[in-house]
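Troubleshooting log. The previous structure file for this entry was overwritten by mistake, so regenerating from the original sequence record. Sequence copied from the archived sheet and checked twice against the printout by T.R.
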Amino acid sequence: MKRDQFRRSNTPQEEHDGFRKENTRLLAVPVDGTVLIKASSMIAYTGEIAFTGKSSAEGGLTGYLKDAASGEGTPIMEAEGSGHLYVADRGKELQVLELAEGESISINGDDILAFESSIDYEIETIENLSAAAVGGLTNVSLTGPGEIALSTHGEPLVVTPPVTTDPDATVAWSTNLSPSFEVAKKFEIGQTTGEAIQMAFTGSDGFVVVQPHER
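Regenerated output below.
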């Protein structure tokens, strides 16, 4: 491929509204005000954009705060200003969806890439005996209106309950669903299925997102 052809083929289109996938692994975000992104996900930007907040030394979602400017353990950044922002998450594939007013989704904290400032969010710590066996789960509940972007290892599968999933492969679910945890039965003494902890979703209203990868 010649140089000019390479350039034309890979030059972003900056005139667009809302979140836009430049390719399956790179998200373009027009910034005119404030948008929230995963810490360390910025790969480039044009215009005048300032960043506040920083990731925790341990990573993960501990200390996910409303006050991103405090920087205390938060794994997100506020990107504020005017321009175009390009973000990615370790080569993971991107999924973009729009939440209507009042619509909510619960997403694993490590899989959130970006969301508009109009989105309301809060921490969800899922705690019970079985969850503790896998180190617990910390999710973020996002409520619209607004666009959100999440990252997955490979193309996700979206299923309607009832369904049972591996917690390490579960990315997100509708907040009206309340998962329960189950311990797989042993086939023989001293042996297990290899899927010791499972998440069970019941009900017919809502969806669950899983990825072809276990954390």
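Confidence is low (pLDDT under 50) at residues 55-73, 129-135. Archived copy saved in two places this time.
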